Amino acid sequence: MFKLAIAALAVVAVVASAVANPDAEFVSHFTEKSLRDVGTNESICASNVNSYAGYYALTATKHYFYWFFESQQNPSTDPVILWLTGGPGCASELALFYENGPCTINDDLSTKANPYSWNTFANLLYVDNPVGAGFSYGLFPVDYDRNEDQIANDLYKFIQDFITAHPEFAKNEFFVFGESYAGHYVPALGYKIYTANQGSEGKYKINLKGIAIGNGLTDPEVQYRYYPEYAFNNPVKPLITQAQYNTALAEVPGCIALIAKCQNGTIACFEAETLCNSELLSPPLSTGVNQYDISKNCTYPPLCYDFDNLNRFLAQTTVRDTLGVGKHTWSQCNNLAHEFLTFDWMKNYQDKVPPLLASNITVLVYNGENDFVCNYKGSKAWTLALDWAGNSGFNAAGDHTWNGAGGVAAGLARSYGGLTFLQVFKAGHMVPLDQPANALAMVASVVSHTPF
């Protein structure tokens, strides 16, 4: 989830009172053993497979929460997919229960199997990232990440220790998927894994085979140019008038100039976020449209979707005891985690992609076409502009119909040299929520190395 309406930075004064205080015994346990599994969770979700959940101690005061589900087919040989939700600061349980996980939540808080779960043929690893998201927590301001180097290092350390605790997955093919602000996380982590594999940093060479960015913010300097165009000309309906369109176009050069300055500093990053979001994103949203799916109204602001069942589900004592989260509260989207990344928002991360492609690591950029906030026009534009050896071939490749589930036309794809851009029909910001069968078909193509 991609959060836009966040107050100005006033973090230091409020962090001490806002961060949850875990009990002392819980903390001391993790200073002795960094990775803690609580075992199988048949009574919570996915009764037909083994699952593990727990905390990983990045430091004595900084802890990731994770939840792992084995594949329904052959866990020992099926790929591992790491999923990262965006925000920044939103919980991966949102994707687990509403998009691609093994189960969904009924109104009576029981769960039922999701027939389109990605663990149909892959092991699924969800992480609440960065600290502050979901059940993850930090005790002090220093525990909160400020940039993608810190986030990528944390995630790399976690993956290494997860494999150490579960060496049976050490040789499995590994994929990093993420959505929305994970358009920052995914290429940064992919590049971190790639560079670490070149040296001797980790105990294990992570068998990275691909990354995928869904409706992501990856190259703001290119993507922000396309907000006026999408708002005025999209597959559903115009969100702004001709006059508003002309006004927005006039604001684009100043916005892009600030984003360019942000790449070499920090103050311009805050200025860019403030100006660009106010002038380019705010006018369409004043209509009450769902910014994540413009075919709908925003019925439950600010995220526009009703996640109350998840809030109530994770508040249950039985669930919390099984997950081993102690007294820690669950945060759907954490404002502190978001605010600490204010100066990261407008940074470009598309430059992490070319080295991956050069090493035969698959890169998929997919977008639901009804999403405004990370729209397909901007995402497609940055893939076309990407500076890599296959740029001319990718631009010349052209779009072709992508047949999804059941062989039915489900989108438009463009592929060349390991890079694919996929526009998914009749889907918004969360493709697996809106098009679950087609999303499963998409993932199957990625992990089986089948062309789109």
TrEMBL record:
Enzyme Commission code(s) on record: 3.4.16.-
Gene3D superfamilies: 1.10.287.410, alpha/beta hydrolase
A GO BP annotation: proteolysis
InterPro entries: AB_hydrolase_fold, Peptidase_S10, Ser_caboxypep_ser_AS
Organism: Capsaspora owczarzaki (strain ATCC 30864)
Name of protein: Carboxypeptidase
UniProt key word Transmembrane helix: no
SUPFAM superfamilies, alphabetized: alpha/beta-Hydrolases
Domain of life: Eukaryota
